[in-house]
Amino acid sequence: MNDKVEKEFNVGGNIDTALSGQYELKAANIIKEAWQLTTKNFLSFSPTIVVLIILQIAIFMIALKLQLGDTSILFTLLDGSADSTQIESIIQSVIVANFSYEIISAPLYAGVCLMAMSHATGFKTKTNHIFKGLHFTIPVMLVTLMGLILQGLAGAILPFLSLYISMAFSNSVFLVCEKRMTPMRSLLLSFRAVNKKLLTVAAVYALILVMFFAAALFYGIGFILVLPFFFHVKGIIYRDMFGIRMKVINSGGNGTPPNNNNKQSQVFDA
């Protein structure tokens, strides 16, 4: 007789410790583990990153074409033949297209975040797991929209303030998908938790910013490593801050501990 035995447990921190700051978060440990996860999952995770980039570029180009009508007008910026009115129109179109692609591609971005989070708990993923974020399409798009608006307002005051807001809201997508929080509450809790460990989180993201800059200098080739590393950093920080609910399902029969002949699976309930 085979009986399924389900056990739920938490990996990492929890909401209470996240808001109180009563947990350990070291920049060196985060960087080391993120690099290990990046190399370990490189072959399986990198194709997902490529898919995300291709889809985001496609969404951006479609949005830009809808704004400009004829994208060949962009070449007028390169040859210097564009007048001030055309330049202003192009800049506005690029801003709108960038805003649009971030909102529309947010569920796919969330799917990649969830995959990195799974790696941080020892799970392997497949490329099609990028679509897991589609289960949370509306709340993820809303939380992304709210975050972008607040970043824009902050950036209008001070450019670097926008970077701070982006970092402070970095856990919001995870909270929406993994903790099933509302967009507004996820933004607030992420903001409060990050500020409890602001120096550590800022140090890690400062390194990532430098890595992005270095990757761009090498014709973007370095992004194949930097982007997976970035997502793994996000997953590790979220795990250590808020914790991740896990479910273990043992099919061993009669409730006995699993052995080599038992079927055991660990499921992330997202």
Automatic annotation (TrEMBL):
Swiss-Prot/TrEMBL keywords: Membrane, Transmembrane, Transmembrane helix
Protein origin, superkingdom: Bacteria
Transmembrane region(s): 42-64, 99-118, 130-150, 156-177, 198-231
Protein name: Proline and glycine rich transmembrane protein gene in bax
Organism: Vibrio algivorus
